[in-house]
Amino acid sequence: MTDVLLAAGALPTWSWNPVADLREMWAFPFMVNAFRAGTLVAVGAGAMGWFMVLRRQSFAGHTVATVGFPGAACAALLGVSVSYGYFAFCVAAALVIAAMPRGGRAAGGHESAVTGTVQAFLLACGFLFTTLYHGLLGGVTSLLFGSFLGITSGQVWLLLAVTAAVLAVLAAVGRPLLFASVDPDVAAGRGVPVRALSAVFLVLLGAATAEASQITGTLLVFALLVMPAAAAQALSARPAVSLALAVLIAAAVTWAGLTVAYYSPYPVGFYVTTFAFAAYVLSRGGRYVRERIARPALEPLPAGGAA
Amino acid sequence: MTAARTASVGAVTDPAADPVAPPVVSLRGAAVRVGGRTLWSGVGLDVGAGEFVAVLGPNGVGKSTLVKVVLGVRQPAAGEVRVLGAAPGRAGARVGYLPQRRSFDASLRMRGADIVRLGWDGDRWGLPLPLPGRFRRGAAAASARIAEVIGLVGAEGYADRPIGQCSGGEQQRLLIAQALVRRPRLLVLDEPLDSLDLPNQAAVAALIGRICRDEGVAVMMVAHDVNPILAHLDRVVYLAEGGAVTGRPGDVITSATLSRLYGTPIEVLATSDGRLVVVGQPEAPARHVDRHEDGGRGAAVPGPRDARANVPADLAPFAPAEPGPSGPSGPSASSASPAPPASPVSEDVRRD
Fold it and tell me: What was the ipTM of the complex prediction?
């Protein structure tokens, strides 16, 4: 993002006065929009990712995010807005994954193989599309790794609308979705529509990633989906607390990444991902240390063994 | 043909039960077809309030399918099924259900108390808003009930630990608490003692018996070994060979009744400590171990023969508590031919 500033001839310097630094950064409208869009993406991805990690559907989520790349490339080739490509491919991938039989945890391997096959094929298609459409050559990097530059206010509003809609649906189905994620058999016995919820969740994931990918790129959005959620679940075993933590961590690493990237010549995606990774490592390490202190000698046997 | 093997022995109605109140579960001539094959037919059963009923039988006979019929997940091919005076599946929270043994992923970061809470409000849509007044009172009632039911199963010590880190017996108690939290009138349990060690089997069986007696909850429990729950049982449903026998345990688990049900000579022996041993049933218990063991840990579990010498009751229906020191190798009840009448125990050991 600092390309623009470098072109202007000066890399901004960190003054150790946060208020002054923020004021300096936010003097640029493109930085304000980057923070707005980043926050919206982080909140949506944090909440959706928390359920994704809980449901052990990280691979499905990765696929849904990744197919945005061939989607955008295909849309560019066809001469329509890349937004349509993102939405069409992400939601279609979500529907395909949802339609595949998911017969309990034993069938997880099967699902992974099919999902991976579809993902690999579509990625290859994406490269074909970008090769066929020569004008997009410079854009491959931004499709994959995103660009926080030049986000218009209109895009921020659209992002706000999509994030609000996704969070509203998530709030409405939240508890049954949690029940179905943790304990599908009992949830089904209680009348929770487990399969329908799974499809709703994947489509929601597809919509959220399609919108976010246009700014963060198809790879960075996955980092924001999986890492804050995994870190938060390591920190707390209380659902409400760890869900809130996931959103907070996602927002914090996005802000930190944007800020550091503003003052350095390296890409924002690297910083956001690195900070999220650091949060994950710290939380796992912290949990490990805490458990050693709490129960130094006797770890309970893994669940399901002889009780 | 199946009707001939279907029978009801002993008193069907419990004299203690209120004759006016409708039974909690009632099956009349129920039959189930799976893939064009009649799994069982002509099953009649009445479960009164506070009664403890076990569903017994060899593997693949349709015990879990009977549970699914009672839950309304599967439709009977024939006959009438009523649960709490309505069609199955309509009773909602008045039926608590504990599916076949499953353990939570060891990495699942959710406290046992949260798992129990899912039984309270996990099927409700929308979010509980942190509003004052009415909502707060509801939240307090929920917390009180969850704490109460955790105390009922004796899980206070580990309810705040992530459930993945609890032992199998601890998880099972928490799941029973989850099934009980909405005060059901019927508790349906599918092999809740499966994969628990013997002390935990006895403890969980005693817990279920106590809940049944003290809370007045009717319990319908699928079991592949009757011995841990024998002392608590009011009635058994024994499924085999497409038919069923219903009655008191002492009337059903007899040589005569089971021989008639299977259509082949069956011996029921009582050990000195009161355990029942069924010898000669044609179905193979070894399949049971394969079917229920989840892949990852299956390798660590000893084969049915080795295990049977140590924990026989865990692996074979009504298996002998002591195979006898004279046994040349581990006995197996998996033979297709029943034991000849003479000296059933030694025959059982030899057969294989």
Answer: 0.79
Contact B166 A303 (CB under 8 A): yes
- At A10 the pLDDT is 59
Q: Which residue segment(s) compose the domain that B337 sits in?
A: 265-350
Asked if the C-beta of B106 comes within 8 angstroms of chain A's C-beta atoms, the answer is yes
* Structural domains of chain A, count: 1
The predicted structure's pLDDT at residue A111: 64
CATH of residue B212: 3.40.50.300
B178 touches chain A (CB under 8 A): yes
**Window B:179-218, CB contacts with A under 8 Å:** 179, 195-197, 200
Q: CA–CA distance from B244 to each of A273, B25, B49, B240 (Å)?
A: 62, 16, 22, 6
Q: How many CB pairs under 8 A join A and B?
A: 124
Asked if the structure places residue B336 within a domain, the reply is: yes
Helix (H, G, I), strand (E, B) or coil at B51: coil
What's the CA gap between A307 and B174, in Å, rounded? 13
Which is more confidently placed, B72 or A135? B72
Q: How far apart are CA A136 and CA A70, in angstroms?
A: 12
A24 CB contacts (<8 Å, ≥6 apart)? A12, A15
Q: Is B103 among the domain residues?
A: no
What is residue B41's DSSP assignment?
E
> In this predicted structure, which of A95-109, A164-178, B18-32 has the lowest mean pLDDT?
A95-109
Using a CB–CB cutoff of 8 Å, tell me whether A246 touches chain B: no
**Interface contact flag, B105 A239, Cβ < 8 Å:** no
Same structural domain for residues B310 and B280?
yes
Residues B280 and B238 in one domain: no
CATH number of the domain to which A48 belongs? 1.10.3470.10
Report CB contact under 8 Å: A238, B195: no
Where does the pLDDT of residue A302 fall: very low under 50, low under 70, confident under 90, or very high at 90 and above? very low
pTM for this model (two decimals): 0.78
Q: Tell me if A287 is assigned to some domain.
A: yes
Residue at token pair 């049944």? B212
Query: For residue A136, what pLDDT band results from cuts at 50, 70 and 90?
Result: low
CB contacts of A304 in chain B (<8 Å) are: 103, 106, 168, 171, 195, 294, 297
Distance from CA of A189 to the nearest CA of B (A): 7
The Cα–Cα gap between B95 and B151 comes to: 20
Q: How confident is the model at residue A29 (pLDDT cuts 50, 70, 90)?
A: confident
Domain that holds residue A69: 3-293
**Count: domains in chain B:** 3
